[in-house]
Specification:
36% of the residues lie in helices and 16% in strands. The chain has 327 residues and is of the alpha/beta class.
């Protein structure tokens, strides 16, 4: 049996502990390649005889189709849909696994950091200080007693709610799956999206990008936000009508926005948010802590071990297992 990482990084290789590598080598031979192959031919050369793949980025469909022994792709992330052709994998009986909750704490902390930077004007004040300006007349905002609106209550949303409540905030939430039990357990109040945008001082987004959530945050919803409200997106840029968001910021209808995700990444020079002083920007790094990256490798390796021991876990296309044995 052969396990291959076709597109590893130096950092991830350093995080791959001796114990994790031992687990992989117990499955068979293990090969680690640095950097994504530049061509499909080069990619296929690395993985053509693999039984399992530890995948950091994407795998071309033509490569996936040309791996006769391949039984599992262990993706190092939560949502492989943009990186692996799931329909093709399912038809070929190739299981695709993910790493749920690996970065819940990291992304939640980053979300709170962006909220605080927006509320306290940290970036703006830091810039003025470095220009020699001692500015004490810019008001900042207290979070105590304010209302946070969570769009989504998965692992990250739950952590953000917990942190926000520690700051004395009340929490409203919209989710696909509201129940009384969940509301009581997490001390949130479920409302409609319209009510959430009307009543929140801060709104944070914690949804996956799917056809159903594409641009779910519409111009109409954004216009419901209170003057001075803060919006933070550490989820996916595709959730938001970003043109409308930029217009509202230009019109000073919002207090501030914190962004970690963008429609085009890396951000292009003409992105309107780059020139706005009431926007705090980060380069899609909310997940990128040493702890989260260690978690992601642990879960990914465990997914491979579990699969080949006949107990698949975290499989996002369970139909791939039907008719192909227990594993």
């Amino acid at each position: 049996m052969r396990i291959v990482c076709p597109d590893g990084s130096v950092t991830d290789r350093e995080l791959l502990s001796a114990e994790l590598e031992r687990k992989l080598r117990q499955l068979g031979s293990f090969s680690w390649f640095y950097g994504r192959p530049e061509t499909s031919e080069g990619y296929l050369e690395r993985v053509k005889d693999a039984d399992g793949i530890l995948l950091n980025w994407d795998i071309p469909a033509e490569v996936l189709s040309s791996c006769p022994k391949l039984r599992i792709v262990s993706f190092t992330g939560t949502d492989p849909r943009k990186f692996v052709d799931l329909s093709l994998a399912t038809r070929k009986g190739i299981a695709v696994t993910n790493t749920p909750h690996y970065g819940d704490h990291a992304v939640a902390e980053h979300t709170m950091a962006l909220i605080l930077c927006c509320a306290k004007r940290i970036v703006q004040l830091n810039g003025l200080m470095r220009q020699g300006v001692w500015e004490q007349d810019l008001y900042n905002t207290e979070l105590w007693g304010k209302t946070l609106g969570l769009v989504g209550l998965g692992g990250i949303g739950i952590e953000v709610s917990r942190l926000a409540q520690a700051f004395g905030m009340q929490v409203l939430c919209w989710t696909h799956h509201p129940t009384t039990e969940r509301a009581l357990r997490h001390a949130v109040r479920f409302v409609t999206l319209k009510e959430l945008f009307e009543q929140s001082d801060v709104v944070t987004l914690h949804l996956s990008h799917t056809p159903e959530t594409e641009r779910i945050i519409t111009r109409e919803l954004l216009r419901l936000l209170r003057p001075g409200a803060i919006l933070v997106n550490t989820a996916r840029a595709e959730l938001v009508d970003n043109q409308a968001l930029a217009e509202l910021l230009t019109e000073k209808k919002l207090g501030a926005v914190g962004l970690d995700v963008y429609d085009v990444e890396p951000v292009e020079h003409d992105n309107p948010f780059l020139g706005m002083e009431n926007v705090v920007l980060a380069p899609h790094v909310a997940f990128n802590t040493a702890e989260a990256n260690a978690n992601i490798l642990n879960i990914s390796v465990d997914n491979l071990v579990a699969f080949f021991s006949g107990h698949p876990q975290n499989v996002v296309n369970p139909e791939s297992l039907v008719g192909h044995g227990d594993s």
